[in-house]
Amino acid sequence: MKALNLFLISFIFATTVAVAQSSDEIKIKQLEKHWTELLDKGDTTSLLKIWSENYVVNNPNGKIVTPKEIVALMKSGHKFPAVERIIEKITFNQDIAIVMGKELQQPQNMTTNHDDWIPRRFTNVWIKTKEGWKLAARQSTRVISQ
Fold first, then answer.
1. Which residues sit opposite 90 in a β-bridge?
2. 140, 59 in Cβ contact below 8 A?
3. Distances from the Cα of 80 to the Cαs of 34, 39, 59, 106, 120, in angstroms?
4. CB neighbours of 97 closer than 8 A, spacing ≥ 6?
5. Three-state SS for 2?
6. pTM of the model
7. Helix, strand, coil proportions of the chain in percent (round to 5)?
């Protein structure tokens, strides 16, 4: 009987942990899609709510930028090109979620043919706060064919 009780307690604990991780993973995937949509719409007010106070980006041009610079760029009329993001891995370390994968950026000629889109690799870092998950850092690098 003790063995059965121990098994049931262990099973319930393992199931609870798995569900919590699944819930966080689902939330991060939703946020990844949502912040991209906000960027496409140019909604700087909502982006500032999703980004952490010290959000920092190492952009595909190799420049490190902050929300102040990004918002100023967007308010000057800059539109970011469309991006299709493919998440390959989400890793959780306590209250940090690291999202990695590849993305395709629509080129300046606005072609819808994905074979012509610019391939990049990305890493996004989310931090769980009292207000929810906040995007803290992003890195995106263009993949150069050899």
1. 99
2. yes
3. 15, 7, 12, 9, 15
4. 24, 28, 90, 91, 125, 126, 127, 128, 133
5. helix
6. 0.81
7. 40, 35, 25
CA 53 distance to own-chain centroid: 16
pLDDT of residue 85 exceeding 70, the answer is yes
What are the pLDDT digits (tens) for 89-144?
Answer: 999 999 999 999 999 988 877 777 778 889 999 999 999 999 999 999 999 999 98
Cβ proximity of 72 and 56 under 8 Å:
no
Taken in order 81, 86, 89, 91, the sign of the CA dihedral is positive
Task: Tokens for 49, please give them.
Answer: 């709510």
Query: Looking at residue 78, what is its pLDDT?
Result: 85
Residue type, 137: A
Number of H helices, E strands in the chain: 3, 6
Query: How far does CA 72 lie from the centroid of its chain?
Result: 21
- Residue 32: phi and psi, rounded to 5, are -60, -45
57 closest CA partner among 39, 37, 42, 40: 39
Q: CA-CA distance, 45 to 33, in Å (whole number)?
A: 17
